Amino acid sequence: MSHSDRWVSALVTAHREALFRYLARFTGDADLAEDLVQETFVRLSTHPPAERSEPKRWLFTVATNLARDAHRVAHRRSELIAAAHDRFPIPDPPPDPAALAERDERRARVRTALAGLGERDRTVLLMREEGFSHREIAEAVDTTTKSVGTMIARALDKMARALGPEVA
Amino acid sequence: MTAHVEDGALVRYLDHECDSIERVEVEAHLDGCDSCGTRVAELRRHSASVSIALRAVDRPMLARRPARRWGMRAAAAALVVLGVAGSVRPVRAWIIGKTQALWATVMGSRDEQPGPAPGAPVRSASVTFVPSGTEFTVEIVSRQQTGRLVVSAIPGDSATTVVLDGSGTENLIVLPTGLRIANSESSSASYEIRLPDRLARIQVRVGTAAPVTFDPRQGSMEIDLGRQ
Hints:
Strand content of chain B: 25-35%
Oligomer: heterodimer
Low-confidence stretches of chain A: 84-93
Number of strands of chain A: 0
Largest sheet of chain A: none
Helix content of chain A: over 70%
Mean pLDDT of chain A: 81
Mean pLDDT of chain B: 71
Largest interface: A-B, 76 and 70 residues
Number of domains of chain A: 2
Order of helices and strands of chain A: HHHHHHH
Shape of chain A: globular
Number of helices of chain A: 7
Number of strands of chain B: 11
CATH topology of the largest domain in chain A: Rna Polymerase Sigma Factor, Chain: A
Helix content of chain B: 25-40%
Shape of chain B: elongated
Distance between the termini of chain A: 50 Å
CATH superfamily of the largest domain in chain A: RNA polymerase sigma factor, region 2, helix turn helix motif
Structural class of chain B: alpha/beta
Low-confidence stretches of chain B: 62-121
Strand content of chain A: under 5%
Order of helices and strands of chain B: HHHHEHEEEEEEEEEE
Number of helices of chain B: 5
């Protein structure tokens, strides 16, 4: 295994789960997040950054850009699926409808709350959750370090309002 | 500091992002300002609550994966899931899902819903993968009752194949530089294949007919798969 392969392999091991968590939250779709995680590491393997000192920030920046692109692709795909909607089978009922419904409702509320944020605020909030510094976040969303605090406060307020008394 | 502390500074304070001067200023202000004290407590509470809410709905990455793989015998032999690490070429593919998974790409999660029973018709499925090299071969093993094949180019490194109206007998086998669709003559499935636009040459072979070659950058290709 070459030095470069070992470098990529180590980064996959170190950041795969965090990237997945970030992307699942960002997109609201776990399957898409898995897809994007792999795409991010493919990019790392085929087009590695020239500067290797901050690979984590590079990975999250690439992942964020891919997530934005994927949203546009998903929109196009929805048209294809919608056209064939009436041919799709009806799935079997879940084993415990009440429990699943409650969990789905909770997830839906979080997804809706995240979706209600502007794209930059969502990025800022979720990168903060992953432990990035304000400087790193600022570079990822192309703003000043001082603006990041304001964006985080705005995002937190909006999330708290959207999630309601359960978390406020 | 006479004016109230702005939200950005309070967040920096909570996140330990203040420099030493700003930290002293914020702490001095908070000592004498109930309003800002209330606000920083609120931000701290919101921060904790949002973290808890996010983590409560997170799912581990690998725990979900086996449930997604049922059914699509397709591809199994040639798939390299999470094959980026090590010396494995970045050829990877996995089942994004069947009907509900495709819906979920747009509409949201439907995790933990069971898929159709093994052997049941698969009306829709998709596979995403990354071809290597600059040439790609699509092979459809046989002509079918009906159905169409559309091959087009898209930006990026990934390729996607969507099967619509399948019977569950169509197997998709992903290879480093090709895709083999092992179908049957009775199938009525249609296939939409989107390949990276960096590919210079795509060859399409249907049944025993002579292969057709085209440059994906020049446009898409559509073939009627029905028996003629």
